[in-house]
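Bug #2210: token dump truncated for SnoaL-like domain-containing protein?
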Amino acid sequence: MSDLIDLADRYVAVWNEPDPDARSAAVAGLWAVGGRHVLQPPQEVVRVAAELGLSTTFEAQGHGELTERVRLAYEEFVAPGLYAFRRRDDVRRLRDLVKFTWEMVAADGAVAGVGTEVLVLDAEGRIVADYQFIES
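Reproduced locally. Full output below:
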């Protein structure tokens, strides 16, 4: 179980990491070379995207795109000092799948958002597919 907690903690930490080099190294340590991140955005974003004829999922694949995805989230939510991400205590594993929930927490401690991760791991424990669902 401690390996699962460590994986989830490292995953959440990468989104809070202020140093670009450390963030890039963390991405390379978490995801397999061809790993991908697929985001199901909040319903309002899905609605607007669908109205515009745009894709309703966002995907990044490979360390370069993943690093950019994490950077964009960091700059939007964490860098301004508005929010930080933290893991909830619900990390579970079923064979090569890991599932857990995280929170986006405001500076005053209020939970501003919640998401669920479903990670598919390779034999070395690195992420080959990361499915993210924004719950609120």
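Output looks complete on our side. The two ends are 27 Å apart (CA to CA). Marking as cannot-reproduce; reopen if the truncation happens again.
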